[in-house]
Amino acid sequence: MSATNVVNLLVVVGLVSCGFAANFESYNPDTYPDSLRDWTLCRAPELSLVCDPNQLLNPAADGTDGVLKLHEALQHLRTASNCSCGSTVGVCDSSDPHGYTLSVAILKKILVDPRSSRTIEELISVFANALRNRFSRGQCQDDAWLVFSVDDGAVWTSTGPNIAEKLTPEFITSVSRDSQEYFSRNDHTGALLYIVNQYSQKLGVVPNLGRNVQIEDSWWERNVWNNVPETWSSSPWRWWILVFVLLILLLVLVGLVYTVYRLISMAYARARHHHDGYSVGRQHGAKH
Length: 288
Hints:
Elements: H1 3-21, E1 26-27, E2 50-51, H2 66-80, E3 101-107, E4 109-110, H3 120-135, E5 143-149, E6 154-159, H4 169-178, H5 180-183, H6 188-202, H7 219-223, H8 230-233, H9 238-287
Parallel strand pairs: 1-4, 2-3, 3-5
Antiparallel strand pairs: 5-6
Helix pairs in contact: 2-6
Signal peptide: 1-21
Pfam family, one: MOLO1
Transmembrane segments: 237-261
């Protein structure tokens, strides 16, 4: 084969590879596109913090493209928050002043080594951590990656030590649990927007909330969970804890009611006994 043919073959292989790159059904952290460089592979309209190479996001409730809607929310968080790196000179980027950076990666499924015994939860956590380390988008570990694998039904947030001071594991678990209302009806965009906006609020930024990312707090949220320690309210066992507490309160209430009933019964019995004795005494006196 001539040198020219070899070059042509390499070009063809390269073009075929590029053509398939955006249509991989599964990825590993090394093959996942960089949305700040290969934004077209991420199906983004421009350089973005969102990557959806398989076009899995549905349009937002207002009809806006899902990637664009998330892009706007992430950019808002980045520009509306302040650098949290302290006063160390040179750490905060003076040429592009910004605060926390949250990126979103959507994939159809995670590439799994058939020889691996790891669970999907372990794999997606490794995937998210690897993306955060590979792209290094923070200034002082103040970045996070939100990864969603559609077919695996798994979502994971990887946080740098700085941003993790506010996005605690308990808080992340609570937000992920609440987002299931969207995931359960395959509203992937709504679910991710909800998570992003909840994170933004926790980081001190008022999000641009749309109708599709608002969940009105229930009576329980307003009157119970918002008034107890976050460790309890964010616990996956919170309803069991509530049932246990209510059961204890019910037993205490029953005990109090029974005690009051017994006291009233005893007082009534004593009063009746005293009245009966008085009546007998008068009858006895009448006979004289």
